[in-house]
User: Which sequence fits this backbone?
């Protein structure tokens, strides 16, 4: 594992996101190994239009993030929400943001003793920071099909694509957090790698032990309980599937744990229960009350089809049966997952999961993810970083020799 390095990560989400994202897990691993880490909360992809029903919700969430200023986590990571202008369609605005961000983050890095940092960019709008922080290495992590996300911001998709391609051209290492994203990559393939999602296996495997007390909010709901945790968006969750289940499987109760956007049509249905966001530490107690874990996503949506939801591996680590919508990311794991190809298929597979009798099935699900931990991913990344730095050093040495020879 790399150590005594400086890392500045521009995240695509806030650190305080309700469930830890991949950058959160990885930065914790690097910090525990003795690296100095600054995590910059998402500078956003631009504001949603004022007519968007979640406009005020997103503003409030960002203001709460700003109010935390710079804070230090238990691992020693400095988390900061810098001031920036959430408009990227203007070259002038992007220039102002470059100055604002480089000044704020540069000063913070100096105060924290960071020198020649590894610059980790996980959002296209942070591309202008490349070359501004005296970094020794640039990593660009591609977590989504950015130019297909028309739900969360009003920034022009062509501009997002241009920023994304600039980042691809500038990065020393490009990490794709999804199989479909990686397979469709066309720029700088020699620098591109698939960074598979991982799991905090000890955290989630406790669910399968039967020793965890079920959260009272879940225990109060009669079974069978069909459980989901994570982001709950009206364009993400297949609401027609839930309505269909009310008619065809009225005894089932769907339990959703996480931040819920306004405007879901299934609110108020008698078999649907929204329990709100829960801390990561407490979440296994909620999962312990599920009979089946599900990912009922609208997989036909272009943006969603590129998803690589961490929760699928977390579900598997519990040992519980798992039914998901068809995502390319998880086709290689279909031997331990039930992958539904239609709404009718989804309900049938949940029924099958509820009646599962194979005594070895739970252990097989856990075995499929037990070695794919965040520590293992961080070890692999460390080797990749050290190799790339070594190669850059050789190139720099050759360039210096040529300059002396011909200068």
Assistant:
């Amino acid at each position: 594992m790399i150590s005594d390095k400086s890392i500045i990560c521009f995240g695509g989400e806030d650190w305080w996101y309700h469930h830890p994202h991949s950058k959160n897990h990885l930065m914790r691993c690097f910090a525990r190994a003795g690296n100095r880490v600054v995590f910059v909360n998402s500078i956003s992809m631009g504001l949603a239009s004022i007519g968007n029903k979640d406009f005020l919700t997103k503003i409030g969430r960002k203001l709460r993030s700003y109010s935390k200023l710079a804070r230090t986590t238990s691992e020693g990571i400095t988390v900061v929400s810098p001031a920036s202008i959430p408009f990227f369609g203007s070259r002038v605005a992007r220039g102002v943001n470059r100055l604002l961000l480089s000044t704020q983050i540069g000063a913070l890095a100096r105060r924290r003793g960071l020198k020649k940092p590894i610059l980790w960019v996980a959002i296209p709008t942070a591309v202008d920071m490349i070359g501004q922080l005296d970094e020794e290495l640039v990593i660009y992590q591609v977590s989504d099909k950015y130019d297909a996300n028309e739900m969360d911001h009003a920034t022009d998709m062509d501009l997002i694509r241009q920023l994304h391609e600039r980042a691809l051209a500038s990065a020393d290492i490009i990490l794709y957090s999804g199989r479909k994203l990686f397979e469709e990559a066309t720029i700088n393939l020699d620098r591109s790698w698939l960074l598979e999602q991982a799991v905090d296996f000890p955290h989630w495997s406790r669910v399968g032990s039967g020793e965890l007390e079920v959260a009272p909010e879940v225990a109060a709901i009669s079974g069978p309980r069909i459980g989901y945790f994570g982001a709950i968006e009206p364009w993400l969750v297949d609401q027609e599937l839930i309505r269909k289940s009310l008619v065809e499987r009225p005894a089932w109760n769907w339990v959703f744990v996480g931040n819920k956007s306004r405007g879901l049509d299934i609110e108020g249905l008698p078999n649907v229960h929204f329990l709100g966001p829960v801390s990561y530490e407490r979440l296994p107690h909620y999962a312990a009350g599920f009979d089946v874990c599900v990912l009922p996503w609208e997989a036909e949506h272009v943006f969603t089809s590129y998803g690589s939801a961490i929760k699928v591996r977390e579900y598997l680590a519990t040992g519980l049966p798992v039914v998901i919508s068809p995502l390319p990311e998880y086709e290689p794991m279909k031997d331990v997952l039930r992958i539904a190809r239609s709404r009718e298929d989804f309900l049938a597979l949940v029924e099958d999961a509820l009646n599962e009798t194979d005594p070895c099935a739970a252990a097989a699900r856990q075995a499929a993810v037990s070695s794919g931990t965040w520590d293992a991913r961080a070890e692999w990344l460390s080797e990749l970083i050290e190799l790339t730095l070594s190669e850059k050093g050789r190139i720099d040495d050759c360039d210096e020799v040529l300059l002396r020879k011909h200068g």
User: Anything to note?
Assistant: The first helix runs from residue 22 to 32. The radius of gyration is 22 Å. DSSP finds 14 helices and 14 strands in the chain.
